[in-house]
TrEMBL record, chain A:
Active site (catalytic residues): E263
Top-level taxonomic group: Bacteria
Residues annotated as signal peptide: none
Gene Ontology molecular function, alphabetical: oxidoreductase activity, acting on the aldehyde or oxo group of donors, NAD or NADP as acceptor
InterPro entries named in the record: Ald_DH/histidinol_DH, Ald_DH_C, Ald_DH_CS_GLU, Ald_DH_N, Aldehyde_DH, Aldehyde_DH_dom
Name of protein: Aldehyde dehydrogenase family protein
UniProt xrefs under Pfam families: Aldedh
Taxonomic path: Bacteria, Pseudomonadati, Pseudomonadota, Alphaproteobacteria, Rhodobacterales
SUPFAM superfamilies: ALDH-like
Record-stated family: Belongs to the aldehyde dehydrogenase family.
Domain Aldehyde dehydrogenase: 46-480, 530-745
Keywords, ordered alphabetically: Oxidoreductase
Length: 780, 325
């Protein structure tokens, strides 16, 4: 077209970013790659092809890792770890700064390489992915520098196995590698097989800056290699990817005694209220669901729009969809690039074609004739019951439904197995700040979407996984408490055949929903004192009692909305009332355990109640300094309803140590008492009853830990399960927790000194809360 | 609802007749500043035109320039120089290399006293003369004098009148007064087209910009314009986005077409491309024509000339190589 003709049509024309440098980098490396192990690239082995999804062209040959390769990588990481840790935070910060600088220097190469390999528009890799990668390394260089001071009581975990997805290849690498190595760990990372090139380029950069050998190791290959990494001798596994694979990893690592963080799928709500700036909300959707072709775990894929404005909003949205430009991702004027692989197009097509509800609208924009593309699609008029409102599509497909009231918007938004992110659009700050905390999601954006920063944690709830990446909250996943492990010793039930200590029969009941309840099964068992006398009878709880207790705990969820001040008062009061009966409790402990330190245990329990009463109104969130005009508020929320197997060895203090932090942070709980000494818990029921604890906030069961653990771990309406039982049930609980991917905190056959500082504090408060980051951009 | 995107590039349309003041509509107007700023900040990264396309777009920008002089020291001689530049905005050899012979600017914009000189200088060229009016730039002279000023300029041959609104009506929420004033100005213009200058830099919030835009359109403005060029902050992309969206809504609701003119602060070729891209995205191609879009600018042309010479020769250009206006 001549200038004169273009002057008339005013079309955009091609604006291609050159791929020359990136292609030259591939050629310089022989267009084939081994793994990066112990600071060097290995020989190329059995290879597979990696392709440019926009054209189908082969970019390079990559090596499928063998078990020996993975072992070599883990060995290298293991060998390098002590030295890397010993280098100290400031020493590591220097390397991390060098990495950040190098990532800046090679920014354009990495962006182009990413687009070639993944198919995402160059605009995104250049303006979003790579700058966030650089920012992540800078930010964590700072965390390394400060670690010796800010995390004095924490130590590195060791060797981390990390498996990342294909949607943000280098960014996910940064999210995994930066915090890990900043905290003194070494890593073995497996990038997705579709998109390994930027990881290999990163490996090259590690070599160039002289990062000590073995600190970062990268092995390539398919899911089988991922399994090898997960099952290797690592101290922690971090995974980002699908919920189904996450579930398998939870199973595979169950009982291994290693840390796990999962960042999984989502079906994030995008709520538009009638008073929103509708045009801006439409534009937000472009960044929510057409960003990276919708292949984003936190994509705002579920539009929930107020009924009265739905038609208007959909009309604006459709007009906007028609303006999207779809095509060659290397073109600087493209909004929607290629889908990562033909397999993914097939998955999307199948899901959308299987839907018969609602009305389907496709962007009228021109589609490329060839390559791996899917048109931007909107399906309106769906209900929560429709499959596409529930299932993650992971493509450029938006589904839409309507609501009438704010409360209904929240209900619909939370009617999902997932809980990664959500957006709320309204010009009313009261409404925004009322709705945001009610949403079951790890991240909420007010009048925005897909805002990310290294300083703000990211991660989900429910089946979107657990753990946070980024910010202060992300560091805990890569550190552990700095204390010597103590082996767990099984506390056996006392045997006896003596007479009852009291002629009046005393059969302790369960405590469910504020009432003393007989066990559903109708069975009890004797509890013997250390001297062989019969202390009393105790109920044997069954799975149905767990069911009832969880129901009761849910009924008491108003506890989460009470003030910290009120919870503090009640915890103080518990301490006061326990103190009034201290002598009696101490006697009982001594009689059951035969140890003679009952007085000390009761004193410690009272002190612990006071400690958590103190914390109840002081465990504050943070406001993260993110680089926007606005705030990212990291709010500590209660986890929800938590089931716990209490420590056997300290029947009163153990119960209190578990119960009090949960109560203080606003959780409700189902506690299974010390198995050998359950009567302390049942005696404590009377203290609970006299201390204004609302019904259902604490529920106490007695019975066999081994029999109840699985029911609790499988219960889909429990948000977390803790086990401090002296029976090691860690593996069983972790494996069974996959039903709803609840958070677990298990002792891994280790114990702690419940009488000392290890029995309380930051670890407990952290486990009793989850962090929600609420982003609130502002400005008139 | 009609969509601005559906209008063909050469579609004819009637002048905006205005509609009764609809305060429910005005009060519902929203403008979320951070979201609007994000959209504008990312636009240059999302839209890019290169090579021949860039040259063509820059020529389009020239065709939409209101070549402007609004200085206290303007003289007949100064205006003559400007009108000559308006007729031949780019060196003939460059235009010929581009195949763009005959390209002119959109209009020449002057104070009332210079209208006659401008009309004379543009005689036969078909280039209209715009006069700033109504006590420009502050708009604080007596209403009857402001109306009389419009009438004088129209009588002197101005084809377009750029009026300034009373910012105080916006800032005090006196929307009815704003509507009535605009309606009176429009009536005084007769057949001349009227551009309503909102002086967005003095309206305080983007929501006020949205509301003022709607009211001026309801009162019959043919164009809405950002600034006088004399405010501390003049045309910006966020303000533009708000005004374009108001134009889009107004068309959807009433079927009336209204033009847009950013003025002040647009001095680089790259800025001009960004404005054109934003208009293409938010309103569609019909608005990329001088009857619906103008740049109020004095130094923009110079930068575009240098870019065009670079396009033709491959060598970076210098200002002195291009005739001054």
């Amino acid at each position: 077209m001549s200038v004169k003709e273009i002057f008339e049509t005013m079309s955009y024309g091609p604006a291609p970013e050159s791929a020359a440098e990136a292609l030259a980098w591939l050629v310089d490396n022989g267009s084939s790659f081994g793994h990066f192990i112990n600071g060097a690239f290995t020989e190329v082995g059995d290879t597979f092809e990696t392709r440019n999804p926009a054209t189908g062209e082969v970019l390079a040959e990559l090596t499928q890792a063998s078990q020996a390769d993975v072992d070599a990588a883990v060995d290298a990481a293991r060998a390098a770890q002590p030295k890397w840790e010993a280098l100290g935070g400031a020493g590591r910060a220097r390397y991390m700064y060098a990495l950040a600088r190098a990532l800046q220097k090679h920014g354009r190469l990495l962006a182009v390489l990413e687009t070639l390999d993944n198919g995402k528009p160059i605009r995104e890799s250049r303006d979003i992915d790579i700058p966030l990668v650089q920012r992540h390394f800078y930010h964590h260089a700072g965390h390394a520098q400060l670690m010796d001071k800010t995390m004095a009581d924490r130590a590195p975990v060791g060797v981390c196995g990390q498996v990342i997805p294909w949607n943000f290849p280098l960014l996910m690498l940064a999210w995994k590698v930066a915090p890990a190595i900043a905290m003194g760990n070494t890593v073995v990372l497996k990038p997705a097989e579709y998109t390994s090139l930027t990881a290999l380029c990163f490996a090259d950069i590690c070599r160039q800056i002289g990062l000590p050998a073995g600190v970062v190791n990268i092995v390539t290959g398919d899911g089988a290699v991922g399994e090898m990494v997960v099952n290797a001798d690592v101290d922690k596994v971090a995974f980002t990817g699908s919920t189904s694979v996450g579930r398998k990893i939870r199973e595979a690592t169950a009982g291994a005694g290693i840390g796990l963080t999962l960042e999984l799928g989502g079906k994030s709500a995008y709520i538009v209220f009638e008073d929103a700036d509708l045009d801006s909300a439409v534009e937000g959707l472009v960044d929510a669901i057409w960003f990276n072709q919708g292949q984003v775990c936190c994509a705002g894929s579920r539009l929930i729009v107020q009924e009265g404005i739905a038609d208007d909003f959909h009309a604006r949205l459709k007009a906007r969809m028609d303006r999207l430009r779809i095509g060659n991702p290397l073109d600087k004027c493209i909004d929607v690039g290629a889908i990562v692989d033909p397999m993914q197009v097939e998955t999307i097509t199948k899901l959308v074609d299987g839907n018969t509800s609602g009305e389907l609208y496709r962007s009228a924009a021109e589609m490329p004739a060839e390559g791996c593309y899917y048109p931007p699609t909107l399906i309106t008029g769906l209900s929560p019951a429709d499959t596409l409102m529930q299932e993650e599509i992971f493509g450029p497909v938006l589904v839409s439904t309507t609501f009438r009231l704010p409360s209904e918007a929240v209900q619909i938004a939370n009617n999902t197995r997932y809980g990664l992110a959500a957006s709320v659009w309204t010009e009313n700050i009261n409404r925004a700040l009322d709705v945001a905390p009610q949403l079951a999601a790890g991240v909420v954006w007010v009048n925005g979407t897909n805002l990310f920063d290294a300083a703000a944690g990211f991660g989900g709830v429910r089946e979107s996984g657990f753990g946070r990446e980024g910010g202060w909250e992300g560091l805990s996943a890569y550190t552990r408490p700095n204390r010597e492990p103590r082996e767990l010793a099984k506390v056996e039930l006392k045997e006896g055949d003596g007479l009852p200590v009291d002629a009046i029969d005393r059969t302790a009941k369960l405590y469910i929903g504020g009432k003393q309840a007989r066990p559903d099964g109708g069975y009890s068992q004797p509890v013997w004192q250390a001297d062989g006398a019969l202390a009393g009878q105790v109920s044997i709880a069954s799975r149905k009692d767990i069911r009832n207790a969880v129901e009761a705990a849910h009924g008491a969820k108003g506890w989460a909305k009470t003030t910290g001040h009120l919870r503090a008062q009640i915890l103080f009061y518990l301490g006061e009332n326990l103190s009034a009966r201290a002598y009696e409790f101490a006697e009982r402990i001594d009689a059951l355990t035969g140890r003679g330190d009952g007085t000390a245990e009761v004193k410690a329990a009272i002190n612990r109640l006071f400690t958590y009463a103190a914390w109840a109104d002081k465990y504050d969130g943070r406001v993260h300094g993110v680089p926007i005009k606005g705030v990212a508020m990291a709010m500590n929320e209660p986890v929800g309803v938590v089931g716990a197997l209490c420590p056997d060895e300290r029947p009163l203090l153990g119960l209190v140590s578990v119960m009090a932090p949960l109560m203080a942070m606003g959780n409700t709980s189902v506690l299974v008492a010390s198995e050998p000494y359950p009567l302390l818990a049942t005696d404590f029921i009377q203290v609970l009853e006299t201390s204004d604890v609302p019904a259902g906030v604490v529920n106490i069961l007695t019975g066999c830990h081994g029999d109840l653990a699985k029911t609790m771990a499988q219960h889909m309406n429990l948000d977390a399960v803790w086990s401090f039982s002296s029976t090691d049930l860690s593996g069983q609980i972790e494996a069974a927790s996959t039903t709803n991917l609840k958070r677990t905190w298990v002792n891994n056959a280790l114990t702690r000194d419940w009488m000392g500082e290890d029995g309380e504090g930051a670890e407990f408060l952290e486990a009793a809360t989850r962090i929600k980051n609420i982003w609130v951009p502002y400005g008139e | 609802m009609p969509s601005t995107y559906d209008l063909a590039p050469d579609a004819a349309f009637a002048r905006n007749l205005g509609v009764p003041l609809d305060m429910a509509w005005v009060n519902a107007a929203q403008a979320n500043t951070p979201a609007i700023e994000r959209r504008c900040a990312t636009l240059p990264g999302r839209r890019s035109v290169k090579k021949d396309y860039q040259a063509a777009w820059l020529c389009r920008a020239i065709s939409c320039i209101d070549l402007t002089t609004l200085s206290g020291d303007d003289t007949v001689g100064r205006v003559a120089r400007l009108t000559a530049k308006a007729r031949q905005p780019v060196r003939a050899d460059i235009l010929s290399a581009l195949g763009m012979e005959g390209l002119t600017v959109g209009a020449v914009c002057v104070y009332h006293d210079m209208v006659e000189a401008a009309v004379k200088g543009l005689d036969g060229s078909g280039i209209p003369v715009a006069a700033v009016s109504t006590g420009f730039p502050a708009g604080l002279s007596p209403l009857h004098l402001r109306i009389a000023e419009i009438e004088e300029s129209v009588k002197a041959g101005a084809h377009e009148i750029d009026i300034v609104i009373s910012r105080r009506h916006v800032l005090s929420g006196n929307w009815q007064a704003l509507y009535d004033e605009m309606k009176a100005f429009r009536a005084a213009c007769g057949d001349a087209h009227v551009k309503a200058i909102l002086a967005t830099g003095e309206l305080g919030t983007l929501r006020n910009v949205a509301k003022a835009s709607l009211i001026c359109m309801m009162a019959g403005a043919d164009f809405i314009k950002t600034s006088t060029g004399k405010e501390p902050v003049n045309a910006t992309l966020p303000v533009t986005l708000v005004m374009l969206r108001a134009i889009r809504d107004y068309y959807a609701q009433t079927g009336h077409v209204v033009g847009y003119k950013p003025a002040g602060g647009i001095s680089k070729a790259k800025d001009a491309i960004n404005y054109l891209a934003l208009i293409k995205e938010e309103l569609g191609d019909r608005w990329l024509r001088p009857d619906l879009f103008r740049f109020g600018a004095s130094s923009l042309l110079g930068d575009i000339e240098r870019q065009l010479e670079h396009h033709v020769t491959g060598a970076y250009s210098a200002a002195y190589r291009h005739p001054m206006g």
